[in-house]
Structures are given as structure tokens and as C-alpha cells.
Design brief:
By secondary structure, the protein is of the alpha/beta class. The chain has 2 domains: 1-13 and 45-93, Up-down Bundle (Monooxygenase), CATH 1.20.1280; 168-374, P-loop containing nucleotide triphosphate hydrolases (Rossmann fold), CATH 3.40.50. The chain is 41% helix and 17% strand. It has helices spanning 4-13, 15-30, 48-55, 60-67, 71-76, 80-91, 105-109, 119-127, 131-138, 140-144, 153-161, 175-178, 183-188, 231-240, 268-276, 291-304, 334-340, 363-372, and strands at residues 96-98, 168-172, 195-198, 203-204, 207-208, 211-215, 219-225, 249-256, 259-266, 279-285, 316-322, 350-356. It has an 8-stranded mixed sheet, with helices on both faces. Strand 8 and strand 9 (259-266) form a beta hairpin. The longest helix is centred in the N-terminal third of the chain and has 16 residues, at 15-30. The protein starts with a helix and ends in a 6-residue tail after the last helix. Residues 14-21, 32-39, 113-118 and 148-163 have low confidence and may be disordered.
């Protein structure tokens, strides 16, 4: 990912070209040139590259407010390089993204101009991308202003027809076992964040029915935690920093384009669990950087979300976890995890939320999203 400094260099490199071209555009759009009156802002007299540099010090919200003051600034604040700078700078800091707000990869990887011979061509390619619209679509602050709409009003009607309205979710993933701090243990012992509402006495194919929690003190939901193997094997693998063969899945060969390939399938004893839930929680190790491991995780997620186990309307919450706050640099921020897991290829609604296991920071935001997309009014 390019640094903000590279974008600022690009702003300066193309300033002479953009200055003359934009003034010609403004003259065409506004008609005959008019002399600036004494009431005009002194900012209008600054070179365009200086104006653009000043705009980079404003927040996106202030930039939008400035654009509402007059025609000239409405046009200036839409400069794609400004919003490209904001997108590259802020995307790595966003703690959550979902299926409607993940920045598309080409917006983050489109090269910025630096070679004077290709400045004109590069700027032309950049202006084809609406970075302002992309930023406003993806920014969590903007996203929070548009609360999600449940899949349909039908879900509320169906909930009203049954006595047990407690949604049920299956939780699985390598982050449950690789972290030094157990996410589920902390959840069970943090009543100030999530209070335990009970342990239902029912089983699904011999598998326990999990633990019920209360969100915001009133909305009950159930989590069935599925570990990959026995506790002794998990602990040994955690100490040795090794991987274990998950008993949740088995590998199966498949033929595709004449080439033998493999895929993950859900083990028979767990299939009924995945059929019975309203959604899924996948716990990912945020410190993981190996592409091959992320591909395995993507294959396991796709195995669980097969249509044979339920409709594609069931939501998937991916918790990008670290054990402790500040323990490691969050190089795999939510945007990176979403792209690495190729979540954009899934038909289900999904969200990636950064979470710290020790403090449960970020967990409630993810749980709230999951409950809303499961049909509850929260």
C-alpha cells in the first residue's frame, strides 16, 4: 500500500498541469471570466497545489462542509487525489469493514504519478476512479449514520410466530486456539460487557448447545463454540506454535478443468450444527500473515456457508483478534483481512471487526452488527 507521502508528492508533481486545465474547465462552466471581488477569500489567490496541500490537513467531514460554501470549493474538494490520500491513510486504521463498505482493491493499489513523462496519463487514470464516493461509502463514521436494514420484514414476522426468539451462532476459527488469551473465557467472565444468560440444556447430534449471553442487558443470543480438536492437542499446538488438523473438516478431491484439486468439507457430526444456526462467527488470528494459511481459512469458511446448510442471508462475523492491546502491530487491519480471506466473493453478508481478546475491545460492535443482520431490532 502506498504511503501518504507518495500521494502528496503526486499532488505537487501534477500541480502545474492541473492548474491550467482546471482553470480552463472553470471558465467553460462559469461562462466569461469575472474579476475577483474584494470579498473573495484569499485562498482563491493561492496556487492550486498549495490549495490542495491545505485541503489535506482538513478532516473528510470538514472537507465536505467546505464544499458546501460555494461553487469553486464544491468543485475543488472533489479532487480525486485528495480523497485518494484520505483513503490510503485511513483504510489501515479502520477497525471494521463489512460487505457493503470494504474498499475495492484497485482503489488502494492504483499507482500514483511520479514520473513527469507519465503524469498526464496517470492523472487521467486516477480521475476515472471516484475516490470521494469510495471513501464516503467505506468510512465507518459515514457507515454508522446508515444503520443496516434487516434482510426483510419477514424475519420479524417469523420471530413473532415462535416462542424461542434467541438467535444461535456457531463460533469457530484458528484464533480461538492460537491466541495466548482465550476469547471465550474472557467473554464468560466479563459481565460488564456481556452477561451470561444461561447454559441451555439441549444438544445437537451430541454436541453441546453452547452458552447464552445478553447483549445490552436484554437481547439474548446463543454461541456454540466449535474447537478444531481436543484441549490437550490445542494447548500443545499453541505452545509449539504449530497447526493442528481440524476435526471440523475433512479434505476431498475435486476435478476442475481437468486438474485434480482439493476442498474442505464439513465433517458429518458437525453438519447439523451449521444447519441449525442463524449466523456464524469466525475468529481469525490478526497476527497471521501467510497467504497459504489465509487460503485454508477461506476454504473452511466457504465449506460452512454452502447452500446445503442454509440460505445465503445468514450473516458471517469475522473477528480479527489479538491477545492484548498493543501486543503486536495491527498490520492485518480489517481491510487487509477482508481482502486476504476473499470475503467479497461470498454471497452472505459479512463484517470484519478488530477485537482485543483481553479487553474485548471492539466485540460489542461486531455482536451488534450480527444481531441486526439476524433480524433483531437492536
Amino acid at each position: 500500500m502506498l504511503s501518504p507521502a507518495a500521494v502528496l508528492r503526486s499532488l505537487r508533481n501534477i500541480s502545474l498541469f492541473t492548474d491550467s486545465r482546471r482553470r480552463r474547465r472553470r471558465r467553460r462552466s462559469e461562462g466569461p471570466a469575472q474579476e475577483l471581488s474584494g470579498e473573495d477569500s484569499l485562498l482563491h489567490h493561492l496556487p492550486v497545489d498549495v490549495q490542495l496541500l491545505i485541503l489535506t490537513f482538513l478532516s473528510p467531514r470538514d472537507l465536505c462542509r467546505l464544499g458546501a460554501t460555494c461553487h469553486y470549493w464544491s468543485w475543488m474538494v472533489r479532487d480525486p487525489l485528495i480523497w485518494r490520500y484520505f483513503l490510503i491513510r485511513d483504510a489501515a486504521l479502520w477497525s471494521s469493514v463489512d460487505h457493503l463498505s470494504t474498499p475495492r482493491l484497485h482503489f488502494l493499489t492504483e499507482p500514483a504519478g511520479g514520473d513527469t513523462e507519465t503524469d498526464t496519463e496517470t492523472e487521467g487514470e486516477t480521475e476515472k476512479l471516484d475516490y470521494m464516493a469510495e471513501y464516503l461509502r467505506c468510512c465507518p463514521e459515514c457507515r454508522s449514520l446508515q444503520r443496516c436494514t434487516p434482510p426483510s420484514a419477514l424475519s420479524f414476522f417469523l420471530h413473532s410466530l415462535v416462542s424461542d426468539t434467541e438467535p444461535r451462532f456457531s463460533m469457530f476459527g484458528s484464533g480461538l486456539e492460537q491466541l495466548d488469551v482465550s476469547l471465550m473465557t474472557v467473554m464468560m467472565n466479563s459481565p460488564h460487557i456481556l452477561s451470561v444468560a444461561g447454559i441451555p440444556q439441549r444438544q445437537i447430534n451430541g454436541i453441546g448447545s453452547g452458552i447464552s449471553f445478553a447483549y445490552d442487558g436484554q437481547h439474548k443470543f446463543n454461541i456454540i463454540t466449535l474447537y478444531s480438536t481436543y484441549s490437550a492437542e490445542r494447548e500443545r499446538a499453541r505452545v509449539e506454535r504449530s497447526r493442528v488438523n481440524s476435526k471440523l473438516f475433512f479434505e476431498e478431491d475435486e476435478e476442475e478443468d481437468g486438474r485434480g484439486r482439493w476442498r474442505y468439507c464439513v465433517a458429518p457430526q458437525f453438519q447439523e450444527v451449521f444447519r441449525s444456526v442463524n449466523g456464524f462467527i469466525y475468529v481469525a488470528n490478526a497476527a497471521e500473515t501467510q497467504t497459504a494459511i489465509r487460503e485454508d481459512e477461506n476454504a473452511q469458511i466457504r465449506a460452512v456457508l454452502q447452500p446445503v446448510f442454509g440460505p445465503p442471508s445468514r450473516p458471517l462475523l469475522v473477528l480479527s483478534c489479538v491477545s492484548r492491546d498493543g501486543e503486536t502491530q495491527r498490520t492485518n487491519a480489517s481491510v487487509s483481512v477482508a481482502h486476504q480471506l476473499q470475503l467479497n466473493l461470498l454471497p452472505n453478508p459479512w463484517m470484519v471487526q478488530d477485537v482485543v481478546a483481553e479487553s474485548l475491545s471492539g466485540l460489542l460492535e461486531g455482536i451488534g452488527w450480527l444481531l441486526r443482520h439476524s433480524g433483531l431490532r437492536v
